[in-house]
DNA sequence: GTCTGTGAACGCATTCACAGCA
DNA sequence: TGCTGTGAATGCGTTCACAGAC
């Protein structure tokens, strides 16, 4: 049996987002080349990616928007809702708590933690803020799978250790330093400075 | 002449950040395998990457921390300061304006723009907020190179068009939709929802 | 003719295996 | 022995070229 690559999955998530927007515009058919224009990919790439999921398109017509979206979603997300735990309710943490893009049926922010006593027992966007000490207990209770690190760099490793102990399987790390976790935990680092410097150096070439 | 790949540059930025942290701890020597542990890369990968910049290391000793950092920085950034323009001063925009990681000698946020009159002429972290109408004029004046889109998805294309007209060469797009720009402009999309779903599906495999 | 689907070719990036050096 | 540096081999992802369907 053929296995799907991570790159294909990541692009498929992009396709899903584009298909959702097309559905809002009542577009019920879409060709690989149109989807390529929207997502910045190539038409062949898109057909190759989709071909993994079977013969979905119709020659001379293209793909049925709704059907394609359903097929991609069913394979990748399987009706799951992803439960998120946030660590650090500073400026970035607050922005994440209020992020409107999460008001979807697929992602649910279920817990937020902070060290500072002044922030505790407040509620932001309907989510209560708890002390870090209670995180392991609460994460297990609400069955969170993914954690977000939005604490200052000095505390990121400490928070990462807690996350691993609490049973989180994936981490987004916004702190500007590397964290060390077991190989079984998937970490995605997003460092604003590095992103900017990366873009800058790309434009210099 | 051999050309450097984007992947190598992106990793080099990670190495630089790690080397800076090591310097703070007064570590003046570092081996490729130690750096690999920190950054999550492999030792061979690191030696291959560094070898592009010449013979920098010493067998049986490793790399001199400061020297390696200087060599990487000089090649990639060449004493440049990157000037950033921010579009959208909502929750995320404010978090970016206050982001402490930018208080570096390499990145400077020089302009912020918003549509809402209520936000104008305020100042956040020493940066004044201007109306979008003045963006082209001001971006040219302060010589910004990179733009950040932190506006709602409905306005992202509009803002992207302004950025291109204003002469920005690179864009970070935090809005959850694709933008269409000339190929000469480098765009990096960061969609929190997609990042989370990507991590989640990775953990499912 | 116009779209999808796909084996084959290609190119790039990582890994391997080992030479070189102190 | 313990590190760097690097040609060769491998593997993976994208692109090409074209068959198949309508």
Description of the structure:
The structure is a homodimer of 205-residue chains. Chain A is of the alpha/beta class. Chain A has two domains: 6-77, Arc Repressor Mutant, subunit A (Orthogonal Bundle), CATH 1.10.10.10; 82-194, Rossmann fold (3-Layer(aba) Sandwich), CATH 3.40.50.720. Chain A has helices spanning 6-24, 32-39, 43-51, 65-76, 91-97, 135-142, 156-166, 192-204; strands at residues 29-30, 63-64, 82-87, 107-114, 123-124, 127-131, 146-149, 170-173, 186-189. The longest helix of chain A is centred in the N-terminal third of the chain and has 19 residues, at 6-24. Chain A is elongated. Chains A and B meet through helix 1, helix 2, helix 5, strand 8 and strand 9 of A and helix 1, helix 2, helix 5, strand 8 and strand 9 of B. Chain A binds a DNA duplex (22 and 22 nucleotides) through residues 5, 7-8, 31-33, 42, 44-45, 47-48, 50-51, 55-63.
* CATH topology call of the largest domain in chain A: Rossmann fold
Name the quaternary structure: homodimer
Our measurement of the CA-to-CA distance between the termini of chain A, rounded to an integer number of angstroms, reads: 41 Å
The helix-strand sequence of chain A is HEHHEHEHEEEHEHEEH
Structural class of chain A: alpha/beta
**Largest sheet: spatial strand order of chain A:** 5-6-4-3-7-8-9
Shape call of chain A = elongated
Task: Work out the strand percent of chain A.
Answer: 15-25%
The total strand number of chain A stands at 9
Q: Radius of gyration of chain A, rounded?
A: 20 Å
Tell me the major beta sheet of chain A.
7 strands, mixed
